[in-house]
Structure formats: structure tokens, C-alpha cells
Specification:
This protein has a domain of 100 residues: Type 1 dockerin domain, CATH 1.10.1330. It is 24% helix and 2% strand. It has three helices and two strands; from the N terminus they run αααββ. A hairpin with a 3-residue loop joins β1 and β2. The radius of gyration is 19 Å and the shape is globular. The relative contact order is 0.19.
Amino acid sequence: MMKHLALAAALVIAFSWVAHSGAISDADSDGVSARNDNCELVANQGQCDADRDGYGDRCDGDYNNDMIVGGPDFLDFKSNFPWDPNPATDPPVPPQWKYDHNGDGKVNTEDFTTFSSLFSLSVGQSGLSCAGDPTSFPCDSPGGYGNWWFCERGEGTAWAP
């Protein structure tokens, strides 16, 4: 009995330390810790980052990487809207994926809605230290996250080169 109480006390202390140290911080509840999360405040379990700038597609409308979502980004989005992929003719990693904010495999009104909500804002929060640093390109999430070339797109399928 005494061993069980000691073990329980040790576990409580360990979990309290972890919780207070921020080691398991995950504000968006997507299962990716904040320090490895390329979109800290918006759930994006797959960590897709088509332009590999360290900011996840779900919170990155800054297509020209000037750290603000503005007019040039709008024109860039507009020139790729709408887009429906054709695996027979598109490259393995279509450049349009960076405009696919919801990961459904196409660029449509849902993506425009997300882009519109990001307009005139700075780029979304990323826990990656390399995010937004052009000298750190590519900025991929450690631990297997952020595989820009292997993101879940449309109906649970995944394209990879």
C-alpha cells in the first residue's frame, strides 16, 4: 500500500511539473506541441506547409513571404482561384497547394473565406524557431511534422512524389 501511495505521489509531482513547465502545451488541441506546431492557434494536425516557410497552410495567407497578408497575396490567390486538381496532369506537388487552406485538395470558396479572415494581418503564430527566417529555408517541423510533400489532401488521400 505504501509503495502505491509513493508511486501516486511521484506521478502527481511529475505531471504537475510537466504541466507547469509548458512541455505539453497545445493551445489548438491538434495533438502537436506548441514548439513543433507551425500554426499554434488553429488546429492543423497534418502540419501542411506547402511553401515551407514554417507557417502552416491553415494560418498562412502570406504567399509572397513579406510577413503580412496584403494586396499582392490577394492577386496571387485570385490568379489560382478556383482550382481542382488533376493527378494525371498536375505535378506531384502542385504549386496551388499553398492556397488550399483547409486541405481538401482544391482551391475553392472555403479557402477564400479563410484567406479573407487573414487579410491585413501578420502571419499566424508558429512555434518553429525558423519560421519566417529566409536564411532557414526550408523551415520544416521536426519529428516528422510539416512534410510539405506529403499532406493529407481531399478525402483522406495523400499525394507524394
